[in-house]
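Researcher: Let's continue the batch. This sequence belongs to GtrA family protein, and it's 139 residues. Same format as the previous ones, please.
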Amino acid sequence: MHKFKIEATKFTLVGAANFMLTFIVFTTMLKVLQVNYLLSLVAAWVIGMIFSYILNFSWVFKPEQKIDFKARFFRFFCASVLSITLNMLALSYIVERFDFEPFYIQMVLLPFIVAFNFSTAKYWSLRRSSGGKRKEFLS
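Model: Same format as before. Here are the structure tokens for GtrA family protein:
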């Protein structure tokens, strides 16, 4: 349980940093550049996904000694695509159906997205190899 708490805390800190980064990108594109809210969300997501993958791999879960941009990244990417798709569908549905401000709806959706992302990272894309040991790579 102790390891889970440490991972959850670190994941939350990475998430907070990612939130700030994506918040700035999303808000700047939406409010300053007046880019469509869905395009703003996608741009913020791409930047945040790469940032999050690197920090979650190297600091939070540490499944291996060297960062892997092959199979693990592909799984992380797939989980992220599912996450952003669900996010976009929910955001679009609520904005279009109820004519709510996209900014506030996205803020309400965030806790659900964070829980989904933690679960997929911990239990699927960034989990350690079988046996619970990190693979060692030679340079």
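Researcher: Any comment?
Model: The chain has four helices and no strands.
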